[in-house]
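ok trying this again, last paste got cut off
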Amino acid sequence: MSIIQNEYLSYAIDPDGVATITIDQKNNPANLYSLEFLQVYTDIAQQAIADERVKGVIVTSGQRMFMPGGDLRWLAKPIPDAKAFFDGIMKANMDFRAIETGGKPFVAAINGTALGGGMELCLTCHHRIAINSVKTKLGFPEAKVGLLPGGGGTAKAPYLMGIEKALTYILQGKEARPEQALKIGLIDDLAADASQLMQKAKDWVLANPDPVQPWDNKKHRIPGGGVWTPGGAQTLIGAAGNVSKLSHGNYPAQKYILSIVHDGLQLPIDRALEIEARYFTKICMSKEAKNMINTGFLGMQAAKKGKARPKDQEKYEVKKLGILGAGMMGAGIAYVSAKAGMDVVLKDTSIENAERGKAYSEKLLKKAIDRGRSTPEQAAAVLEKIQPSTDAADMKDCDLVVEAVFEDPALKDKVTKETEAVLAADKIYASNTSTIPITLLANSSERPENFIGIHFFSPVDKMPLVEIIVGEKTSEKAIAAAIDYTIAIKKIPIVVNDSRGFFTSRCFGTYVNEGMFLLEEGVPAAMIENIARKKGMPVGPLAVHDEVTLTLSLHVFESDPSTAKRPDSQRGYELCKLLVNEHGRKGRKDGKGFYDYPEGGKKKLWPGLAEIFNPDPTALSEETIAKRIMHRQALESYRCLDEGVLTSVLDGDIGSVLGWGFPIYTGGALSYIDYVGIENFVRDCDDFKTRFGERWTVPDSLRAKAKEGKVLAENSHA
């Protein structure tokens, strides 16, 4: 008989005295963990505990997922009162503790994904059973958005999983499938389907009238040993060293997690939860967490859903895709598109080249089969969708054609005209160029309104970002089509206006150039690389320059008519010429660039750099080097916003984080200016202009914002 039903859940008691709370949040896209929900849930749970008819409670979900996490929209907002926030967390903790110690068994019947707060809700139950499905994810991913499990997860997980496994999963935000979750102790049992799940849950309730949580059981021993056992102490010391080495203090959540586990396991659980609540309050008020939530979660979710899409355009479906060029980029585009269910024509100058491009998909699919993520039948179905070709006529029925040939305007002109001759007039033609202006390439087209840039990143199968470039005559229909296609292949689109290098290539270029300029000014190469990584860049500017190759940089400089007119571009060009032409240092592909790449060995900085550039460790302070590396990227990103290349702070932040690895704790290259403070940023750039040149000139609009005390990212990620 159903007793209660509201916007959050329903509650019923069966004839055997087993109550079921079915979470089903009507006003949210999924069940979300929030203080409002917890109040309703704990009130119902207390009713069940007080009801003499009820022998125990099953907690499950009325939706496909049990509860995929907390409501981050709430945590993204400023917290005006830290004490009130802390008190709210502690109230939830006390309500949960009342359930745990209320004397009646609670079982979590996990019928789908339970992450973050959803998993913490399951921990408040005395027993956890999950349907054994590969689609189900269980764990604590909070660290990925700069947070920590603050609903009891950090304090309680080590009691179930042991210190080592708990830290591995919580520090990295790792997720487990049900079988693995059972193995590590996060859950207690598996069920084959929904029917068996509910039956097992009911059986456990009836068989365990006096449950005790592990953290309340004095006989319970933490798997692998407690804090002061040899195993526990060694794990904590090792974890502290790794966190310091990998985060460089930029990600405070990891440091707080270690403190909660270390201190909390030595205290009664109620004190441990208080410690967790204090650190959770502290992290929720940090700039780093706000940035990671706003850009890394809310912003990317909005972009994935097509936030930038023109609203009045009909959905554009790509059933058949044409790709011109079967090199690494074309082959990668073919793979992700065929995997999304599209028929693909992969064209190159020879059938051997086209077949080689298709073989790339075969290789990736074989790897997926080997890892248990695909089957031979699924792989065969994807491969069947890719048709190698040398004939432009095969493009005639395509809904979208993506040109991915070499960065040569003359070659692009040839294939554009050849393809448009057979492509239907109302279909979209896109170029995957990374630097050549779309408006310039669209001169080759008889229908420039249907011509657009769709810039992928390499390797296409791994890189989530797609930069959509709008030319002078590109229509809203073409923009909508490009975004619809990008979303269909499960990539994240940003939309930028046309300019040489667009946004990502242009700003990434400042990173590698500034690295070369520092080298030329006497800063030792190792210092440049280490400081860049310390600030959160995934790879130093010299190493990443080797990856993209110095020869490509030379080609970009030489193909840009404005290189000679801009001192910083000319300087970068001269340095590339010096290294490539005079010293044969072309980059990683050739085994020698800024680094040497011995076969079978680790890369090492080329000793010859010291002979060319005369390094002096005291040439510049570490603070100046760090600011030059980071500020330079942010300043160029702001110029893109100021010039209208970028139309939103969000696109700049997402593009910088996903496009070239700008550190997420700052929120992205534009939010970084807020992170350091606009006034501080402008002051530094003015100082650098005096010392290092005109490239540090601050746009008037940014100077005005600094004077007015404004911020860049306000409301931009909502």
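PB: full thing came through this time. The two ends are 42 Å apart (CA to CA).
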